[in-house]
Input
Amino acid sequence: MNIVLLLLLYFLVAGDPAEIEERAITPPTVQDLPLDGLPRPLVTMRPGGGLALNGVPISPDALRGRITSDEFSRVHILAGQDHPAQAVLALSGILSAAGAEVQMVTLRQESRSGTGRGGS
Output
């Protein structure tokens, strides 16, 4: 019992061993990318709340219909870093419920170079 108390006091005094930068969560960033190199089918979440399938505007109901008709079983979602997380999760839930495997497409930034690559 005494060792537990000593360890508790030690960790209270020592604090968190992780640096602030190590605990920070950086959301993915999205830039205007050519759609050629990105995985298909690609659902892009636009800032105004609209959706595009492979660059063509589409409604959520039409997208759900294409998934339930077994046109494709996997969907890639591309959303901006400032897009509301609730909207991304809601769309992911709708597409999953329709029977699609959902994957997020993110952009990795090279350190200090300002260029990035698309990836999933």
